[in-house]
Write a structure and sequence with these properties.
The protein is of the alpha+beta class. 33% of the residues lie in helices and 20% in strands. The chain contains nine helices and 19 strands. The chain has a six-stranded mixed sheet with strand order 4-3-2-1-5-6, sandwiched between helices. A hairpin with a 6-residue loop joins strand 13 and strand 14. Helix 3 packs parallel to helix 4 and helix 6 packs across helix 7. The protein is elongated. The relative contact order is 0.11. The model has no long low-confidence stretch (mean pLDDT 94). Pfam families: Creatinase_N (PF01321), Peptidase_M24 (PF00557). It comes from Streptomyces mirabilis. InterPro entries: Creatin/AminoP/Spt16_N, Creatinase/aminopeptidase-like, Creatinase_N, Pept_M24, Peptidase_M24B. This is M24 family metallopeptidase.
């Protein structure tokens, strides 16, 4: 992997040089991990004119949640506890003879920005912007492999839950059980806080589990994800509990399923982000569900669960091959409940079979 990380840093170095900076300071944790292989708590990466350095408050642990540093990268541990790695990195940039430093202004606090300026007053600070985030959008096959394994783990955890007795159990208990199963099957941990909604809570995006108990006839909506080697995937499904679904439940489910299918089919290289959103959204709009729809149809996944691209009405840009995204339309009827169906897919050309579905748990409306 050393060659991979070195190539990523070189691409960033070229972008910095084009912007007039020979050095860069990367502080956003996901960006540090992308370029260095690991992101210990508080660590920063200096892309130096002499050499690249990873500054840490303590030696890297090698634990799964922080990754393992690139072996070709020198790690500089701060000499005293409580020091600021970003300030130390700015000092190192000066020592290397740098006269300018590109920083992630969207991540640095004002206080930290001032501290860098005070320790290196002769250093011109420029904005690196979202340069690293842009590099992260297209994944290599190793990254996609990590997402694929994470999706398999999430599918396993969800499949086991569906085989257990659900009536009478609380949303909170089911969410905790799912997260335990993720770890049991090899995940670093959950990709985000697991959402379980029953009855009137079902279908709500980002619902935080409560002590409401599962009842016969409820919709049960579940959204979970696994983190594997730092990469995060997502899956969401909706079921009916204990009985044949009511007519309104079948109608609503079929509608959301049609919207989700339209969104998935729109995932082709070159498709505009907003067009993917429109494909799914217009199915719901045509059925009269214009109020309360989610702000977006999907988003990118990777080292973060919600990263570029954003599949939203006003989003700018077009899809590339090897970009993993979610497609997750949903409808929630206040007081009754709702449906959400969520998959993680990788954009592939038609010649390669079209979008690759990573999350494969059935989307049939099951009565559990």
């Amino acid at each position: 992997m050393s060659e991979v990380y070195a190539a990523r840093r070189e691409r960033l170095r070229e972008r910095c040089a084009a912007g007039g900076s020979a050095t860069a300071l990367v502080t956003r944790p996901a960006n540090v991990r992308y370029l260095a292989g690991a992101a210990p708590r508080g660590a920063v990466l200096l892309l130096g004119s002499g050499e690249d350095l990873l500054f840490c408050g303590a030696p890297p642990s090698g634990e799964a949640d922080e990754g393992r540093p690139d072996e070709a990268l020198r790690v500089q541990v701060l000499p005293r506890a409580g020091g600021d790695a970003a300030v130390a990195a700015a000092g190192a940039a000066i020592a290397q003879g740098a006269d300018s430093l590109a920083v992630e202004e969207h991540h640095l606090t004002v206080t930290r920005h001032r501290a860098i300026g005070s320790v290196a007053p002769g250093l011109r600070l420029a904005d690196l912007g979202g340069a690293v985030e842009q590099l992260r959008v297209i994944k290599d096959e190793e990254e996609i492999s990590c997402l694929r394994i994470g999706a398999e783990i999430a599918d396993q955890a969800l499949g086991e839950l569906l085989e257990s007795i659900l009536v009478g159990r609380t949303e909170r208990h089911l969410a905790l059980e799912l997260e335990r199963r993720l770890v049991d099957h090899g995940a670093d941990g959950p990709a985000f806080a697991t959402s379980v909604g029953t009855g009137p809570n079902s279908g709500r995006r980002g619902h935080r589990p409560t002590d409401r108990r599962v009842e016969e006839g409820d919709f049960l909506s579940v959204c979970l994800g696994a983190t594997y080697r730092g990469y995060r995937c997502e899956i969401g499904r909706t079921f009916v509990i204990g009985t044949s679904p009511a007519d309104w439940q079948i109608e609503l489910y079929d509608l959301v399923f049609a919207a989700q299918r339209a969104g998935r089919e729109a995932l082709v290289p070159g498709a505009a982000y907003r067009d993917v959103d429109r494909a799914a959204r217009q199915v719901l709009d045509s059925a009269g569900h214009t109020e309360g729809l989610p702000a977006l149809t999907g988003h990118g996944v990777g080292l973060e669960i919600d990263e570029d691209p954003q599949l939203a009405p006003a989003a700018m840009g077009k899809l590339d091959t090897c970009v993993p995204v979610t497609v997750e339309p949903g409808v929630h009827l206040p007081g009754r409940g709702g449906v959400r169906i969520d998959d993680t897919l990788v954009v592939r050309p038609e010649a390669d079979g079209g979008p690759e579905l990573l999350t494969i748990t059935t989307k049939e409306l099951l009565a559990l």
